[in-house]
Design brief:
The chain is an alpha+beta fold and 337 residues long. It is built from seven helices and 20 strands. The radius of gyration is 21 Å and the shape is globular. The two termini are 26 Å apart.
């Protein structure tokens, strides 16, 4: 079993998360890359190591006129194919390896340069066409292996413990779980106690959180959990994203969609909603980072089917056959479902 699941499509960013002409370093599957966006919204990615002397390209700068990235050590420039721009405008062969990217509107995916084994789900395209994208939480590195974070995203029992504070969840009722291969659906209800006035003032989005919180979770193994919630101000959708950074760290962020617009109140409501969602990441990460080393559980709980579902696919990953495809890239014929 390998820890980084080669062949998985990983969602790494929304274009709004990137500043124009500002290099950004990120790590996926144990390798460092630099990502940048130009004025036209075009996104490029290379391995972060300069092929000359090993400097971090992410510490350099973007040259807007040529859409190249300059190394901070000797100011060597590289284009989005990894070719060096040499004296007299000569261009080398590719030297810095590009990271192949796939685009769904403003969402950026990658297979981390591995042969695809699963198609890219089209759920984010559908959400973007039906709902209003209000933003994403800050990206967070959780100091826990990918499998630990994967499991907590599918653990239907942990809310009344991990999320008891702030969200005041007393109990959870699981109404349904459907296993459809690498896609599954969970339907649950969280039963909440009343929040304090101080908590409402600190987090106004709690005013619109029902006492019985009904959730539908669409699970796309292994990187996405789409959570649909009905609230008094319309449906809210949170997309829990994870990908492996290293063997011991996992990266996460949550894009958020809303059904309705409230005009001049949007900034206040959106800020509060994002803040409330970031609290979920904080609570999950805080719990995972304080666990003792994993061992075989001596207690079994009800409604653990989703956790068994992710373990089954995780541990059988090596047996999955790669997808047939005729090309890869923004205009590829790679299957998207």
């Amino acid at each position: 079993m390998v820890w980084n699941l080669p062949g998985v499509p990983w969602l790494i960013a929304h274009k709004s998360m990137l500043q124009v002409n500002k290099p950004k370093m990120f790590t996926i599957c144990g390798k460092d890359y630099v990502l940048w966006k130009n004025e036209r919204g075009e996104v490029s990615a290379l391995e972060n190591i300069c092929p000359h002397m090993g400097a971090k390209l992410s510490d350099g700068w973007i040259c807007p006129n040529t859409n190249t990235i300059a190394c901070p050590f000797h100011a060597l420039e590289f284009d989005n194919e990894g070719r060096a721009i040499l004296p007299n405008d000569k261009i080398s062969k590719p030297l810095a390896k590009p990271l192949e990217l796939f685009f769904q509107g403003d969402f950026i995916w990658t297979y981390a340069n591995e042969t695809p084994k699963l198609p890219i789900p089209d759920v984010l395209e559908k959400l973007s066409s039906q709902y209003r994208y209000i933003g994403s939480t800050k990206e967070v590195t959780i100091k826990a292996p990918f499998l630990d974070v994967l499991e907590i995203n599918h653990d239907l029992n942990h809310a009344k413990g991990t999320h008891r504070e702030v969200f005041r969840i007393n109990s959870t009722k699981v109404d349904d779980f459907q296993d459809n291969g690498y896609y599954s659906i969970s339907k649950i209800r969280h039963f909440r106690a009343e929040n304090t006035l101080k908590e409402y003032l600190k987090n106004p989005s709690l005013l619109f959180t029902p006492k019985v919180l009904g959730l539908v979770l669409e699970n796309y193994f292994p990187s996405l959990v789409v959570v649909y919630t009905d609230t008094p101000v319309g449906k809210a959708i949170q997309v829990f994203i994870i990908y492996p950074e290293t063997e011991t760290t996992t990266r996460t962020f949550i894009p958020i969609f809303a059904e309705k617009s409230f005009g001049i109140l949007n900034p206040l409501l959106e800020k509060s909603t994002i803040k409330s969602t970031e609290e979920i990441i904080h609570q999950d990460g805080g719990m995972l980072e304080t666990l003792y080393p994993r061992f075989e559980p001596k207690i079994r709980l009800e409604n653990e089917e989703p956790v068994h579902w992710v373990r089954k696919h995780y541990y059988s990953w090596n047996d999955l056959t790669p997808l047939p495809c005729k090309g890869r890239g923004e205009n590829s014929e790679l299957l998207i479902i």
